[in-house]
């Protein structure tokens, strides 16, 4: 199977996903194998929602729309044009996936397969319904994928390298367990936003998407703000307000109530608006329904801090602060060439000996 066959298959998968890119699913006549897969995928989406209370239809659709937009021929060609795929070096790469947001491991899955390697997938029990169904669709549109995609719920065996994502605790286990294999081991990371007080209302409203999408469960969600010493949060809270219906989601509301009670009993200072709390804290990883903040008095010192703590940061959201910054509202819309932890998984896949 050559690169063009693999690209064509994922473009067809993108077309298939485009039918599920809004909450009113729309079957399209030109999409291949819809008679076999359209109704089945609707059922898998419903199962994903029932199995994991965080996987609301809105958030699953948001994820599917993101992948549909990325899996176009022009995007995949732009992405793959930076690599040399001519070397025949067929290996099996295991992927241990997290389950915090829908299809969170899809980019690793895509990178391994587009590189021409076999993939062995161990999913999180929190996100186990969507990807196997999409893998079956790939096998229908490109039969040469058959036998090259394997899912397992048991012990990982017969693989040449591994990409594993988890918490700091599970990463220590991964590092020990996979010490004899080439590996990419990902730990906890969080995203931060740099505010200056000069942000427009539109920028702050866009920031709310970075904070609340997926209930803040993703590593690309903003969980920490850096603000000037004299920052007034009134404009910030005003821009967040349109997300107030989130408090009607039971799992979110339970976390909000619990964390608020902990803060109050501990006599911690915090500000809140009925669905979001902000608390001054040096940590990056904030609980659900909470955003930490830290004040700065020097942009140069802040840049030094961000550089020093770069291993804990996935994205930096700002306007004109860093060359590598992400615009407000864009953290959950990564491009194919935006690699988690800045680790190029295609290069990794292509250079396994």
Q: How would you describe the overall organization of this protein?
A:
By secondary structure, this protein is an alpha/beta fold. It folds into 2 domains: about 5-185, Aldehyde Dehydrogenase, Chain A, domain 1 (3-Layer(aba) Sandwich), CATH 3.40.605; about 190-315, 3-Layer(aba) Sandwich (Aldehyde Dehydrogenase, Chain A, domain 2). It is built from 12 helices and 11 strands. Strands 8-9-10-7-6-11 form a 6-stranded mixed sheet, with helices on both faces. Strands 3-2-1-4-5 form a 5-stranded parallel sheet, sandwiched between helices. It starts with a helix and ends with a helix. About 35% of the residues are buried. The mean pLDDT is about 95.
Radius of gyration: 21 Å
Sheet with the most strands, sense and barrel status: 6 strands, mixed
Q: Tell me the name of the CATH homologous superfamily of the largest domain.
A: Aldehyde Dehydrogenase, Chain A, domain 1
According to CATH, the fold-level topology of the largest domain is: Aldehyde Dehydrogenase, Chain A, domain 1
Helical fraction equals 25-40%
Q: Total helix count?
A: 12
């Amino acid at each position: 199977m050559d690169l063009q066959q693999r690209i064509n298959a994922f473009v067809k998968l993108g077309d298939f996903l485009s039918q599920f890119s809004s909450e009113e699913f729309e079957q399209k006549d030109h999409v291949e194998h819809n008679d076999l897969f359209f109704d089945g995928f609707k059922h898998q989406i419903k199962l994903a929602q029932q199995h994991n209370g965080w996987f609301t239809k809105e958030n699953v659709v948001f994820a599917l729309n993101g992948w549909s937009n990325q899996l176009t021929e022009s995007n995949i060609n732009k992405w793959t044009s930076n690599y040399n795929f001519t070397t025949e070096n067929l290996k099996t790469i295991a992927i241990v996936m997290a389950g915090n947001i829908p299809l969170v491991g899809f980019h690793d899955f895509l990178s391994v397969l587009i590189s021409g390697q076999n993939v062995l997938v161990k999913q999180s029990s929190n996100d186990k319904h969507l990807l196997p169904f999409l893998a079956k669709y790939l096998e229908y549109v490109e039969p040469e994928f058959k036998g090259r995609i394997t899912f397992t719920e048991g012990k990982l065996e017969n693989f040449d390298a591994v990409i594993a994502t988890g918490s700091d605790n599970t990463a220590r286990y991964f590092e020990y367990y996979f010490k004899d294999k080439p590996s990419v081991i990902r730990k906890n990371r969080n995203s931060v936003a740099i505010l200056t007080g000069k942000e427009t209302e539109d920028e702050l409203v866009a920031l709310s998407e970075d904070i609340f999408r997926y209930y803040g469960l993703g590593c690309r969600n903003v969980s920490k703000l850096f603000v000037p010493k004299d920052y007034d949060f009134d404009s910030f809270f005003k821009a967040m307000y349109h997300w107030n219906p989130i408090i009607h989601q039971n799992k979110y509301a339970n976390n909000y109530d619990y964390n608020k009670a902990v803060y109050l009993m501990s006599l911690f200072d915090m500000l809140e608006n009925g669905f979001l709390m902000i608390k001054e804290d040096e940590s990056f990883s904030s609980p659900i329904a909470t955003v930490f903040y830290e004040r700065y008095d020097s942009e140069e010192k802040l840049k030094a801090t961000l550089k020093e703590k770069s291993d804990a940061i996935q994205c930096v959201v700002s306007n004109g602060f860093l060359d590598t910054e992400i615009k407000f509202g864009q953290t959950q819309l990564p491009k194919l060439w935006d690699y988690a932890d800045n680790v190029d998984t295609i290069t990794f896949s292509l250079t396994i000996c």
